Amino acid sequence: MANTLKQEDIETLRELIKGVDVAMVTTMNKDGLVSRPMKTQEVEFDGDLWFFTKKQTSKYEEIQHDANVNVAYVGKSYVSVRGKAEIVEDLDKKKEFWNKAHEKIMQTTFEDPNVILIKIKAEAAEFWETGNFIKNIAFMYKQMTGKESEDVHINETVELDK
User: Fold this and answer.
1) Which CATH architecture has domain 7-159?
2) Which of 18, 27, 84, 85 has CA atoms 20 to 30 A from the CA of 68?
């Protein structure tokens, strides 16, 4: 499936997630949805999100079984990105993203065959502004009641891949 991401959508999402280091990444296991915080790699968003992990983790197994994921960011806005994950073991790509902090946290080097990258190709994103009080109230109302607030436009959705 070819990515037909519009440049203005990429730029909007890039600005919304810029500076938000940690995202909640949701995968699917046999019991249902599982979310965990993961550090986004410091790469300018171009439609793909990148994360380091190890093969010996549940998220590796979950992605192998079901590539559908969601990534949620909270920063200047609330951002929810739906996409497909793929495991990347390319040594050059791992070296490109690697830094001393990874070495300390993961207790290994990028050359370790157990270290992998998760590449998430964004398919759609939904976002809510945090700076608008009325929109925040409408968002909270919707979350608590499950009812739409028809008179307040509380969020925007962009389709990234058709």
Assistant:
1) Roll (2.30)
2) 18
pLDDT tens for 106-159 read: 999 999 999 999 999 999 888 887 665 445 555 555 555 555 555 445 566 556
One-character DSSP codes across the chain: ------HHHHHHHHHHHTT--EEEEEEEETTEEEEEEEEBPS---SSEEEEEEESSSHHHHHHHH--EEEEEEESSEEEEEEEEEEEE--HHHHHHH--HHHHHHHTS-TT-TTEEEEEEEEEEEEEEESS-HHHHHHHHHHHHH----TTS---EEEE---
